[in-house]
Specification:
heterodimer; A: about 250 residues; alpha/beta; Rossmann fold; 2 domains; 6-stranded mixed beta sheet; 8 helices; about 30% helix; B: ABC transporter involved in vitamin B12 uptake, BtuC; 16 helices; about 75% helix; binds adenosine-5'-triphosphate; binds magnesium ion
């Protein structure tokens, strides 16, 4: 395991709570992640996984609790602030503008401008091409609307958008839910490469096999609370399934 | 659609797509352009050659200016998943205000009257647009309702500020902005403008080509590039020649391009750059495509919407200057139902009511289409109610055709 507990975590979430009009989406949740580590977040539907990552990515600032990035306490009030801290997110439902092309989507919100203040399309196209090459991804055209691309190609753009801008922490909410087996394998490959570069990855997935393939640790949530955090190497799939279903640590 | 129609429609579409790639225009617009040509020829025959006379084309260019200017803004409004029904009323209100400004407050004939009035009219339009946009964006009231309220409010405000009395005549210099008998730039300057336009077309094509080559991107084959430049240049020359072919009735000098038409051309260029080459334009399209994704990308969706409506208001201000100057009067009924022509122009020009899709030049072509119909029907002596009925049918048909086309693409 590359991460030693002696290092400072990339991110620590401490006693995070979030309610939505009476619904306790999160209660006193503790999670952390170290450089080069993949932490899977598991739990049944409505357990609070998406809410947790939205707290971290600035979509829903928490009601209570503390977030530390590189050991420093931070407040993350917007997606922009999260990005400024190197926290990038791939959201559960492909968050692309379907009417725009790959280049426009990749740079959305972070456009490059010429010195006259106009969009520098050529530079952006050039950098898009380089990035896709680096990720060994191939698109039929960078300049057709994203709506004409396959699910895997769109996911590639979404991932590219997240990692291109110096992500330190990458959050992937169901990155493979809409993909076929081949494309899923491709995403897995990407996750391993990013991990090797020292990026910390939060992975949400319903596919327990994926999780055991990729994750170093697993945090299980149930009804907005942490059931427990375990090392993938220490447990069996059945243990994890029982944590999800029964909502308590496996007894042995 | 029957099983026989489908493949045939498919073949037509493929043909259009191929042709459109050669001349660089969206296939759907190309279809519209072909229909426009047919309508022009038909109207010309029906009017015994009057429709395509230099005099009528000159008038048509003036009629297109008002609707065209506003249609460029309506594209962005619709692309951002909104609508603005108030612009006809805003046009009238700003016009009465501008007329009163000259006659009551500033006085006619001063050197500054025309430009102070114009600036204040632009400001008023922008403020009205921004206000409505703020209610839409921050108040969460659907734009349909806000601007429907605006339609009622400003039409009656236009009446109220001068109790319905028409304000006339206006400042002589101001009148030139409407493109009346003296409001044109004459043959010489028209050719100069045409020449500059051709130089601009050639230089920008070459610059873009060079830049793409520097990055190692694919470029069109050189002969095709040259054909493109030559075609566009020829179009410019024909346009200038037609405008110069219409002699001023009093002096018999060629009229040349009218000032409102120059304004429209300028607005079209600027709005195209705004839509395609600025962050603001990019955000408008992103919001139209997927508002959540735009928000998550850190775009301020609400403020962008306010800016879209403010821009629409500014353009309504420009249109109001043109029409008020042309009528040489501020009347509270000016611009009644113009919003429908503008929306129709945008939609016929390929703007999708679902948001996210639409081009500036398409909307201007759509304005040419709408105004050609209206102009032709006037020449043919079609009674006004019947004209409006035809326009209504065309609007619905355009959206219908758009639906069919969009469905056939997927
Ligand atoms: N914006 C919101 N407003 C109100 N309630 C919300 C909101 N977002 C989430 N919730 C509620 O919070 C709880 C946790 O939802 P969350 O989306 O985090 O679940 P999840 O673990 O991601 O589930 P899934 O596996 O279905 O994606 C649910 O009860 C949900 O209804
Ligand atoms: Mg979820």
């Amino acid at each position: 395991m590359s991460a030693t507990q002696a290092q400072t975590p990339l991110v620590e979430l401490r006693r995070i709570s979030k309610t939505f009009g009476g619904v306790h989406a999160l209660e006193d949740v503790d999670v952390d992640i170290y450089p080069g580590e993949v932490v899977a977040l598991l739990g049944h539907n409505g357990a609070g996984k998406s809410t947790l990552i939205k707290v971290l990515s600035g979509v829903h600032p928490p009601d209570h609790g503390e977030i530390r990035v590189f050991g420093n306490p931070v407040r993350i009030e917007s997606t922009r602030e999260a990005k400024a801290l190197g926290i990038e997110t791939i959201y559960q439902n492909l968050a692309l503008a379907e009417n725009l092309d790959a280049v426009a989507n990749l740079f959305l919100g972070r456009e490059r401008y010429t010195r006259f203040g106009f969009l520098d399309e050529e530079t952006m196209e050039h950098e898009t091409r380089r990035m896709l090459d680096r990720m060994k991804l191939r698109l039929p055209s960078l300049r057709t609307e994203v709506s004409r691309l396959s699910g895997g190609q769109r996911q590639a753009i979404a991932i590219g958008r997240a990692v291109y801008f110096d992500a330190k922490i990458l959050i992937m909410d169901e990155p493979t839910a809409a993909l076929g087996p081949e494309e899923t394998a491709k995403v897995g490959e990407l996750v391993r490469e990013l991990k090797a570069e020292g990026i910390g990855i939060f992975l949400i997935s319903h596919d327990i096999h994926d999780v055991f393939d990729l994750a170093d640790r697993i945090t299980v949530l149930s009804h907005g609370r942490v059931v427990g955090t375990v090392r993938t190497s220490d447990v069996s799939k059945d243990d994890v399934l029982s944590m999800i279903i029964l909502g308590r640590m496996p007894t042995r | 659609m029957t099983s026989i129609d489908l493949p045939r429609g498919h073949a037509v579409r493929l043909g259009l797509e191929r042709l459109s790639r050669i001349i660089g225009i969206d296939p759907r617009l190309l279809g519209m352009l072909l229909v426009l040509v047919v309508i022009w020829l038909a109207l010309n025959i029906a009017t015994g050659g009057t429709f395509l006379s230099a005099r009528n084309l000159f008038n048509l260019s003036l009629q297109v200016a008002v609707v065209g200017v506003m249609a460029t803004g309506m594209v962005l409004v619709i692309v951002s998943r909104n609508i603005d029904l108030s612009i006809g009323s805003v046009l009238g209100f700003v016009g009465v205000f501008g007329a009163l400004m000259q006659t009551e407050w500033l006085g006619l004939g001063h050197g500054y009257t025309w430009w102070v009035t114009s600036l204040l009219m632009l400001l008023l339009g922008t403020v009205i647009g921004a206000g409505q946009g703020a209610i839409v964006a921050y108040g969460g009231v659907p734009s349909f309702i806000v601007t429907l309220g605006g339609l009622l409010f400003f039409r009656n405000a236009a009446f109220q500020i001068n109790l319905g009395a028409t304000v006339a005549p206006l400042d002589e210099t101001f009148q030139l902005l409407g493109g009346g008998l003296n409001g044109t730039i004459g043959a010489f300057w028209s050719w100069i403008c045409g020449g500059l336009a051709i130089v601009a077309i050639a230089v920008s094509s070459i610059l873009i080509r060079r830049k793409r080559q520097r990055f190692g991107f694919a470029v069109r084959p050189l002969p095709m590039e040259i054909v493109g430049i030559v075609l566009w240049s020829a179009l410019v020359l024909v346009f200038v020649a037609v405008m110069n072919a219409y002699p001023q009735p009093k002096t018999n000098e060629p009229m040349g391009i009218a000032i409102p038409v120059l304004i429209l051309i300028g607005v079209t260029l600027i709005m195209t750059i705004v839509a395609r080459r600025t962050g603001f334009g990019r955000y408008v399209y992103a919001i139209g495509g997927n508002p959540e994704s735009a928000e998550l990308a850190g775009i301020s969706v609400k403020f962008t919407i306010v800016k879209v409506f403010a821009l629409m208001g500014l353009l309504a201000g420009i249109a109001s200057i043109i029409i008020t100057a042309r009528l040489n009067a501020g009347a509270s009924v000016t611009g009644t139902l113009t919003e429908l022509n503008v929306i129709a122009a945008a939609v016929i020009g390929g703007t999708s009511l679902a948001g996210g899709i639409g081009t500036i030049y398409g909307a201007v072509l759509g304005a040419v289409f709408m105004q050609s119909l209206e102009n032709g029907m006037v020449l043919l002596g079609v009674p006004t109610p019947l004209q409006k009925m035809v326009i209504a049918v065309v609007l619905v048909a355009a959206v219908w055709i758009d639906r069919v086309y969009q469905r056939s693409r997927t």
